[in-house]
Amino acid sequence: MTEQSQHLVDLSNARKSFGSTEVLKSISLTVDPGEVLAIIGPSGGGKSTLLRCCTLLEKLDGGALSYGDCTVTRDVDGVAVYGSKDELARAREHFGLVFQNFNLFPHYTVMRNLVDAPIAVKKMSREDAERKAIGLLERMGLEGKENMVPCELSGGQQQRVAIARALMLDPDVLFFDEPTSALDPELTKGVLRVIRSLAEEHMTMVIVTHEMKFARDVADHVIFMDGGVIVEQGRAAEVIENPQHERTKAFLFTEE
Question: Model's pTM, two decimal places?
Answer without folding.
Answer: 0.93
